[in-house]
Amino acid sequence: MENKLFFFDIDGTLTDRKTGKIVPSAKRALELLEENGHFVSIATGRAHYKSRELLTELGLENMVCSGGMGVVIKNQLVKNTPLDKEEALAVIHDAEEKGIGVLIATDDSEKVYAKNDLFREQVGPRQEPTEYFIDPTFSVDEVEDIFKFYLALPKEQDHRIPEPKKFSKLRFVQEYTMCQHDNKKQGILDVLDYFDRPREDVVVFGDDVNDLVMFDKRWTSIAMGNAVDELKELADYVTDQNVDDGIYNACMKFGWI
């Protein structure tokens, strides 16, 4: 059996969206894939620091993270690329000129920086663990890297900031938007380059619109039964819902386990 390189989305694929817990049959499938010599990785838009705990819980050593710009192989972070600084600064300054609160992550952590507390005054705190550093002397132009930033931009005001070209505006809550990388395919390509493997050796599993970029006709793309219609239309195969052993059943069907 030819060994493959597997990449799994997290929410709605490996985990039950209702509980946030890993689907037991999915974890077992990953264990069996590794026992059979396959390369197994998660592929997530989450930052590297946010994904480490889940990687350990899954018993894996590999992941594509940070929206595709982070790569971990054998538990070593081999890549974590910040945003294009010139464009990030342009978007941030545009927001500031328009009176929009901004929080800036300058490293791979839950720390965010700002010269004022306008973000929280406008939309409240971020809806995840955050360490705030508010300093009137803070200058984003002087920081070395910008890994992501948050705009106090409610959904109905999204049009006020144009879509960047080299990264994306993402919205997971109604109150604010996040600017970060959103190209999990690039992380997969980086892994292939690292191991000098052909694209046809890749298998990806996903369920939502943010997985569309991972689905490529040069490799095998599998949509969960609970996936959005757009993803199912691109898929080479649609398996059962993730909570109905979709990952395990697909791996059995194709003889990977």
Automatic annotation (TrEMBL):
It comes from the Bacteria. Keywords: Hydrolase. GO terms for molecular function: magnesium ion binding; phosphatase activity. SUPFAM superfamilies: HAD-like (SSF56784). It holds the Pfam family Hydrolase_3. One of its GO terms (cellular component) is cytosol. NCBIfam families: Cof-subfamily (TIGR00099), HAD-SF-IIB (TIGR01484). This is Cof-like hydrolase. It comes from Enterococcus gilvus ATCC BAA-350.
